[in-house]
Amino acid sequence: MAEPLNIALAGLGTVGTGVIRLIETNAELIARRAGRPIRISTVSARDRSKDRGVNLSQYAWEDDLTQMAARDDVEVVVELVGGSDGPALTLARNSIAHGKALVTANKAMIAHHGLELAEAAERAGSALKFEAAVAGGIPVIKGLSEGAAANAFERVYGILNGTCNYILSTMEDSGADFADVLADAQRLGYAEADPTFDIEGIDAAHKLAILAAIAFGARLDFDAVEVTGISRIIASDIAQARALGYVIRLIGMAEIETAAGESSLFQRVQPHLVPTGHPLAHVDGPTNAIVAEGNFMGRLLFQGAGAGDGPTASAVVADIIDIARGEKGAAFSMPVGELETVPQAETGHRLGRAYIRFTVPDRPGVLAEITAAMRDAGVSIESLIQRGRAEEGGDVILAMVTHEGPESAVNDALRQLDGSQSLSAAPLVMYIIGE
Ligand code: NAP
Ligand code: HSE
């Protein structure tokens, strides 16, 4: 068998230790599949004395992880530190500059600097791979850029954040509060170091921007993703959605729109109501699922563990195996120079059915004012549920579902109600996914 492929492992947290366990456990099988053994030569993290539940004594330790790339005994640098900038980015740039292949699970870094790194890797003739950055253990990047590479994609959407999905599905099953369920998700290792990235939809937006670039051959544009997280969802939304035949899921959606011969790219992360008959409605816990629609293949559904040490390590090591086989590939499925600049889509004309939750004082005239704003904006109401008040003079929840219409009309109605004494809190809008 050929010489081992020497790798440096930067970051020994959830994913880094998962990679060590996987490479040690499946060493022989991996060597047969890769054509050569994978050997961890060097590791690095902040705290050398921390007990990580893995034996590090056989690996060299590098205090300054940004220097790992310069070592002669390293062919592949595996960055599992995290953060869009800082030491992770310095290490990534150093690695490519030294002609080393780079494997990373860092969606924040790829969403912000992926094009720069991919161009640098192309110039250096080295590989940049980030399968684990999108949907953890699900090989969706490989699926789109290899297995389904012949298709023009029409739409890619799905559940891209395990923490949010765990929170929403657990709130649904247990009726527990948002904050308690979030604490569980952090304890279980699903959440990012800063959980705001998860619950405010930023982590899902990083992944969506990467997927959209790969699916549509478009230059990655993270700033063009419209983002709303799940932190404003309350138990009552979940109950109303259920009564109407839906579950709530944080959905990332990317779609090419064509009007008057011009293409634009729609990218949005937002909680949606998903009909209970839709495959995404049955995706519970930290699971991720992505639907890709291609012009010849039809609809593909990818589903699996989107976070956690084992699944994420599985995707990281798959990238390392590719490199061992000499399969460099193009980071975004085609050379960066082939990616097109696609303008951001306007969203006002998009048609949709909206769920709108109002928190209102329980007094005469409130409903009339809200429905008048809907009438004036041309929004047609399909159904309306008001929950009885808990106490005299307290607020009540009013949940409305609209008929299909332009998003701009809903926005106009809410603008008309902005600052009204009839609202106790800002309304929450969630769109409804079709079957
Ligand atoms: P983590 O558990 O927080 O581990 C981060 C590691 O990086 C730790 O070992 C830490 O060292 C080290 N580190 C952080 N800052 C450092 C610095 N300035 N210098 C040296 N070492 C530093 O993170 P993780 O969950 O494994 O995530 C790693 C990457 O994978 C992130 O990009 C994340 O977004 C991505 N990812 C994670 C998952 C998941 O399920 N967790 C899934 C997909 C992708 P110490 O241990 O010494 O503090
Ligand atoms: N925090 C991320 C999630 C980890 O919850 O999906 C995987 O990217």
Question: How would you describe the overall organization of this protein?
Answer:
34% of the residues lie in helices and 25% in strands. Strand 15 and strand 16 (395-402) form a beta hairpin. It folds into three domains: 5-133, NAD(P)-binding Rossmann-like Domain (Rossmann fold), CATH 3.40.50; 140-305, Dihydrodipicolinate Reductase, domain 2; 351-432, ACT domain (Alpha-Beta Plaits, 2-Layer Sandwich). Helix 1 (14-25) packs across helix 11 (309-324), helix 2 (27-34) packs parallel to helix 11 (309-324) and helix 6 packs across helix 7 (178-187). It starts with a strand and ends with a strand. The longest helix is centred in the first third of the chain and has 18 residues, at 107-124. It is built from 13 helices and 18 strands. Strands 7, 8, 9, 10, 11, 12, 14, 15, 16 and 18 form a ten-stranded mixed sheet that branches. The protein is elongated. It is an alpha/beta fold and 435 residues long. Residues 136, 161-163, 190-192, 198, 203, 306-307 line the site of L-homoserine.
